[in-house]
């Protein structure tokens, strides 16, 4: 307590005693024991009230010592086991944390990392990925605004995440403790293989391969890509001490539709310590998207030739020209382009009502609009016999598919009969029309969908001028041809809106995250948050099935199937309230990225140490590391004087005591007739 507080307490004693004396002794004639007792009660009550007002505080000082943190992060990935260093890592970790001098100087923090980072003092070395970037990110957050050293027991072989060399705070020294055999062995390795997940049937798809060599002799290796028992590509590759990498670019044929599994391998006559990294499996989904587009016309017009060229730029499209009476040629057609239909097209319209082929209707001066009104109800035409030129205006709110404005406002006008065109609620307008600079609020290019059937309307002829103008503006037909291809692609798609939409890959590499996403929509095609989705995953070989629930996220449901072994799997996603289901399959390819290494990445770990002004140590230099940490005078404990202030009294109990004293005084006075 302070001196002022003590003086106030003494003054309180005097005041309490004085008031008690004045009340009971100053004019009292009878100084019996009762008076003394009442005076004592009054003294205690007044003194308690004064103490309550003063509220004396006790101050307690204590000395607290804060040690510098020492973060020890241990690589828990399976590459440690692959390099036969798991026992050594555990031994080094125990040596560091049990050192008395380190315990006295530092606050030791133990962590493990593989794909994730977390506090731990036990390690199983089963992590399927290594992410040293997570170590840097988390240590910055945990020991924010502190200067501290970090020891990383690792082989330095990172398989995921950003390059860790420059991710650690350069203010805080990092001391990599390198584990694994640093002896250079002859090793051939497929370092990386890049390939698109999808390819088109009867096309060729590119494969880019990065090969790596470790050794001190000149050698020649055979690189092959095989499918089953057939070799589909073969290359001879030479390496030397000065040429340790090679890049191959190959084109493979997509001859079969569906999921195609390939095996890339590299080999030589020499014996290697690690042959696991000589093989890499990959898969490509071959899609048959070949589609036939029929342009039906009763007249000759430059638009037809321009449209045919624009469509056939995409090698997956084939255009046939058909007269209105050649119905037999339309059996395998994906899209019908009906150019300026008249009553001669009646048989085609009648036939298509049953076939349900998506159509692209182009009108012009020769179109019979009364007939067209009878064949569809998406647009209503009230046209005169007068011709008119219509300019186009791009509608940026169009959202059926992604499309850029390629300069439609600068294109020449299209010619059509003058009149009014009205739309129903199911029509989406991409281009609206203008007469000179006056907007007509009528469509020029519009799309409609009715009971799963899609129809596009282009209201005007002379689009060949558009293609020519696009070439003048861009020195290429590409932008216009892409615009036409997107229209055809939208019409060629037969995908209708489904209530259950499931997103997944056809194949996954072992060790990758296997996530399947699903969305369930109600009858208004609104995302249903109350849906109950489950998935049944069945191994195609063992027939063993497992059930999982899909968890709701922001706008989808998802399930993580990590832990499945390599092989083929069939699965079914089911919505329990409606029994709506979706079935498909995927394959997990045998590929363990953590088994790709024969040596620790000493170079990168030394770069990391240099970047943070630390030092890299090898596994037999643990004592040197300990001495370096102990001798570094930068890391000192901080002594802090902790001042704790606590009230001398508990005001609640003091109030109760004061109330009891005053109550007792009143009853005693009442009993003795002193009131």
Structure write-up:
- The strands form 7 sheets. Strands 16-15-17-18-23-22-21-19-20 form a 9-stranded mixed β-sheet, with helices on one face.
- The mean pLDDT is 87.
- The chain is an alpha/beta fold.
- It has 14 helices and 34 strands.
- The longest helix has 22 residues.
- It folds into 5 domains: 86 residues, no CATH class; 126 residues, von Willebrand factor, type A domain (Rossmann fold); 101 residues, Immunoglobulin-like (Sandwich), CATH 2.60.40; 202 residues, Rossmann fold, CATH 3.40.50.880; 94 residues, Immunoglobulins (Immunoglobulin-like, Sandwich), CATH 2.60.40.
- The average pLDDT is 87
What fraction strand?
35-45%
Please give the largest β-sheet.
Answer: 9 strands, mixed
CATH superfamily of the largest domain: Class I glutamine amidotransferase (GATase) domain
Structural class label: alpha/beta
Low-confidence stretches: none
Q: Which oligomerization state do the chains in this entry correspond to?
A: single chain
**C-alpha geometry:** flat
**Top CATH class of the largest domain:** Alpha Beta
Strand order of the largest sheet: 16-15-17-18-23-22-21-19-20
The percent range for helix content is: 25-40%
Measured between the Cα atoms of the first and last residue, the distance is: 40 Å
Q: Could you name the CATH topology of the largest domain?
A: Rossmann fold
Number of domains: 5
CATH architectural arrangement of the largest domain: 3-Layer(aba) Sandwich
Total beta-strand segments: 34
Cα radius of gyration in angstroms: 42 Å
Keywords: Membrane, Transmembrane, Transmembrane helix
Transmembrane segments: 6-26, 33-54, 651-668
Protein name: VWA domain-containing protein
InterPro entries: Class_I_gatase-like (IPR029062)
